[in-house]
Amino acid sequence: MIRLLIQNWWLLFLRGLLAIAFAIFIFVFLPFLPAPFLRQFAFAGLAAIFALFAFATGVLTIAAAVRGAGQGSSSWLMLADGIAVTIGGLVILLSPGLTLMHVIQLIAIIALVVGVLEFVAGVHLRRHVTDEWLLITGGVISIAFAPCLLLTNVETVQSALTWISIYAFASGLAIIGLALRLRSLRNSIHTLAGPGPEAQAAGESSLL
User: Fold this and answer.
1) Of 66, 110, 116, 154, which is most buried with the most CB atoms under 10 A?
2) DSSP output for 104-159
3) Residue 95: left if φ>0, alpha if ψ -120 to 50, beta else—which one?
4) CA-to-CA distance for 77 and 158, rounded, in angstroms?
C-alpha cells in the first residue's frame, strides 16, 4: 500500500488541488444563488464542475490502482475509491434533470464512501508514515460530514454549499500535505539507495 501511494504521490497532490479549486468555485457560485435568472446557470456550472472533477479524479485513481495491481500492494482500496468517485461523476454528468439537492446528496454519498476508504488506507499507513493522521483525519471528517449533507433541508441549500466549500478546501489541504510527505519519503528512499554496486565500480575504475 505504501509503495503504491509513494509512486502515485502526484495523484494525491492533484486531487488536493482539484478539491481546493472546487471549493473556490462554490464560493464564486454562492452570490448568484439568490438571483432567480442566474441561479440555473450557476447551478449548471456547479454540477458540471463537480462531475468533471469527480470523473477525472476517479479515472486517474483507477489508472494508478491498475498500475500497482501487479506489485503485491493493497491496490483494491485505491481502485474502490476511483470507481466510487467516477460513478458519482458520471451520474451527475449524464443526468441533467438532477436538482441542486440531488447533487448535494450525491456529494454526501461520495464523501461517505471515500471517507471510509481513506480511513482504512490511513490505518494501513500507520506502520510506514508518521503523517498518516492526515489521511485518517480526512476520512473521519468525510464520514462525519456526509450525514450532515444528507439531512440538509431545501431551505438551507446556501448553508450546505458553504459547508461543502469549507470541507473541500480543508480536505484538499490535508491531501496536499500527505502528498508532499509521500514525495519527501520517495526522495529520501532514492537518496538512501544511492548508486548501485555497478555504478560504484565504474566510478572507482574511472579514478584509477
Assistant:
1) 110
2) HHHHHHHHHHHHHHHHHHHHHHTTT-TTTHHHHHHHHHHHHHHHHHHT--GGGHHH
3) beta
4) 33
Q: What is the DSSP letter of 94?
A: T
For the entire predicted model, the pTM comes to 0.72
Report yes or no: 121 and 75 within 8 Å, Cβ to Cβ. Answer: no
DSSP label of 86: H
Stretch 151-169: mean pLDDT: 74
Q: How far apart are the first and last CA of the chain?
A: 44
- For 27-35, which contacts have Cβ atoms below 8 Å and span 24 or more sequence positions? 27/165, 29/161, 30/158, 30/161, 30/162, 30/165, 33/157, 33/158, 33/161, 34/158
Task: Read off φ and ψ for residue 44, nearest 5 degrees.
Answer: -60, -40
Give me 56's grid cell: 477525472
- CA 89 – CA 106 distance, rounded (Å): 9
- The residues near 37 (Cβ < 8 Å, ≥ 6 apart) are none
Q: Is 206 exposed, middle or buried (0-12, 13-18, 19+ CB in 10 A)?
A: exposed
Neighbours of 61 (CB within 10 A): 25
Which pLDDT band, with edges at 50, 70 and 90, does 138 fall under? confident
